[in-house]
Amino acid sequence: MKITRMHGAGGTVMQKLIKETILGNLENTSVNGGIGLESLDDASTIPLGDKEIVFTVDGHTVKPIFFPGGDIGRISVCGTVNDLSVMGATPIALSLSIILPEGFDIENLDKIMKSINEACKEAEVSVITGDTKVSNVDDIIISSAGIGIVGLGNAVRDSGMKEGDVIIVSGNIGEHGLTILLTREGFEFESELKSDVAPINGLVKSVLDAGFKINAMKDPTRGGLADSLNEMAEKSGLGILIHEDKLPISNEVQFIGEALGIDPLTVANEGKVVMAVRAEDSEKILEILKIHPLGKNAKIIGTVTSEHKGVLMETLVGKRIVDTPLGDPIPRVC
Amino acid sequence: MKITRMHGAGGTVMQKLIKETILGNLENTSVNGGIGLESLDDASTIPLGDKEIVFTVDGHTVKPIFFPGGDIGRISVCGTVNDLSVMGATPIALSLSIILPEGFDIENLDKIMKSINEACKEAEVSVITGDTKVSNVDDIIISSAGIGIVGLGNAVRDSGMKEGDVIIVSGNIGEHGLTILLTREGFEFESELKSDVAPINGLVKSVLDAGFKINAMKDPTRGGLADSLNEMAEKSGLGILIHEDKLPISNEVQFIGEALGIDPLTVANEGKVVMAVRAEDSEKILEILKIHPLGKNAKIIGTVTSEHKGVLMETLVGKRIVDTPLGDPIPRVC
Ligand SMILES: Nc1ncnc2c1ncn2[C@@H]1O[C@H](COP(=O)(O)OP(=O)(O)OP(=O)(O)O)[C@@H](O)[C@H]1O
Ligand SMILES: Nc1ncnc2c1ncn2[C@@H]1O[C@H](COP(=O)(O)OP(=O)(O)OP(=O)(O)O)[C@@H](O)[C@H]1O
Ligand SMILES: [Mg+2]
Ligand SMILES: [Mg+2]
Ligand SMILES: [Mg+2]
Ligand SMILES: [Mg+2]
Ligand SMILES: [Mg+2]
Ligand SMILES: [Mg+2]
Which residue ranges does the record assign to the PurM-like C-terminal domain (chains A, B) (predicted)? Predict the structure, then answer.
């Protein structure tokens, strides 16, 4: 069997590879009773005293490396910060492993590093270690691991939603993926569309600091909201019912998605969070999210139920199944 | 200015890129008063309670990915474990960011994962998080970040050697680099040479557990022992005098090095440690090292002096300067 693009595209094909070939071969997958690799959550944890160290990593091969709204440097910081944030952790430190092709412009590396610096200041994290290699790659690759801290036992899992919970998404979906596609293919759309890439730690913190409990949380990256909701449903053993007319989607994304035949539910976001919260807290949490610039389009999109498994969507013409995509339809999206 | 191979080869060319373009652009480079990126040590630290979290990363693009003595999986574990070990830390957790080319054999990924598993068991570390992407690369790339723990204030720096200290290297040098070169180029040497790739945490621990203080320590990877000794000298403001006839070099490495015109002092090791220790402890530390299978060829190779800067080597025909190499002579060595 050979690797195909789909093995790196964040859907069922990749999940199978990770479960069988990667996780299936590893015996040491957790430390000190913390959340281990077998949870396949956004990050894992290591209990230490009255805290847990939260640890995650993402590799970035986005093409093109500069795009409206961001670049590979900004994604490298935000992707990792966001995986820590959806664990309820405070992100503190990043590592940067950079792979460069021969002939790469040092001026472009300089631009990328400046962008990394800006994103780090925005997210209040530090780059404390790194590595640099030159290899046979078509463009720069940046792999950023990250460390965050959370109180012992306070990590938010992606498996924790409860029957009756309300599902909130923090803003318009599909913008990152469609921006990458438009930029790369040189489509002739006149478009103002840009990537949503941003660090969501401040946004998540505003909810947690107000004393609300978040039962489950993910950042809907590769595979989009469809992938994240399915994972939350599967891991909790419950179902999710969302409402098409409540999904925050800009007219532009709607139009471009339809024109290209790509469902915005399945494409990557890089500055969004989806959470399951208690019904009685949901309106207050929505208000808090809307105060933050990154949450101004936040919406309640559905509820958690034990009446079915998986994800269903109420549409004008009845309910349809929202499946886990085989993979994100846009290659090299992040 | 364009990136060349040398920018990823671990010598002065790479150091300049890191200092100017990478470190030079970053404002947030340390956390909580810990050892930060500006130290350019093997790893950085984050104080937390009565401990320090130690954090490091290495990207691996070694070619070929399977070679006598190891493979890219084993290097990915050991490289990161070793950077944590030379900080005096106990390595506990790794992340694995894997970049795959389309068409890569899943059976080979399976072999690599099995090798990662074996190395993790040897080093007593766990893989707790990872990421998988498919991109335009000529072979698999693995970037492994790692977390270790050390008592507050107990991290061993690469800058800490003192006048009168003795320099010990834990075994034969040059084996990894020359193995890679021989394997890649299909040279016609009949050779038993294999890579030394191994986790050195147990070896270092045996010295620290015996209560000895190590003043400075590094793992002599890209750029070899020449690079590490120069860095230790420069950062301490002192000089090192080593003795050619005391360097642990196998006859085979000596012969191949001479045949190919490559100085074993400048090529990568993947299972060695070089340390500066108090003269009065040096014989006892040497004995402890020699008990461990990975330390059986350990040798005292020199001393620390204030009489000159940099690294000098006493040879049959007098002293010569051992410079920091521009870069490791063997590309894609790790
Ligand atoms: N190469 C790998 N080695 C070990 N674990 C992996 C590897 N690739 C993925 N995983 C694990 O699989 C789970 C899913 O990974 P995935 O990358 O899809 O999550 P994510 O980072 O939240 O999403 P994205 O990468 O799209 O931002 C995570 O728990 C991750 O740690
Ligand atoms: N891309 C990068 N971003 C941030 N810091 C970097 C980067 N590349 C290297 N560094 C820092 O520069 C210093 C030297 O890195 P280097 O990779 O040479 O160390 P090493 O890992 O000990 O050696 P090797 O990679 O040969 O095993 C380290 O402190 C490292 O954190
Ligand atoms: Mg995630
Ligand atoms: Mg992620
Ligand atoms: Mg390195
Ligand atoms: Mg090192
Ligand atoms: Mg290293
Ligand atoms: Mg990931």
Answer: 162-312
